Amino acid sequence: MSIADLLALREWVKTGPVAPAGNWYRDFGSFILCGTDQFPKTVLEKGMKPFGSPIP
After folding, report:
1. Which residue positions in the chain have pLDDT lower than 50?
2. Are 51 and 25 in contact (CB under 8 A)?
3. Best label site of 37, 43, 49, 54, fewest CB within 10 Å?
C-alpha cells in the first residue's frame, strides 16, 4: 500500500460514500477495498481479483 493510496482512501471516507446493496469493491491503485452492503470486509493486494460491483 502506498501512502498516496491510503490518503485517497481517507479522502473518500470523508465524503460519506454510500455503498450499494450486495458485494462491492473500490480500487485505490495499490490495494482494493471490498465490502458487503454498508460494511467494508477485506483489503486485497493489487492483482487479486475482487468480486461484486465496482463503485466510483
Report:
1. none
2. yes
3. 49
Phi, psi of 39 (to 5 degrees): -110, 125
Residue position matching grid coordinates 477495498: 33
Q: For the chain, which residues make up each domain, given as ranges?
A: 3-47
Show the beta-strand stretches assigned E in the chain.
23-27, 31-36, 39-45, 53-54
| Cα separation, 21 vs 2, whole angstroms | 29
Distance CA 34, CA 55 (A): 10
Quote the pLDDT of residue 20: 92
The sign of the CA dihedral 1, 44, 46, 12 is: negative
pTM for the model stands at 0.88
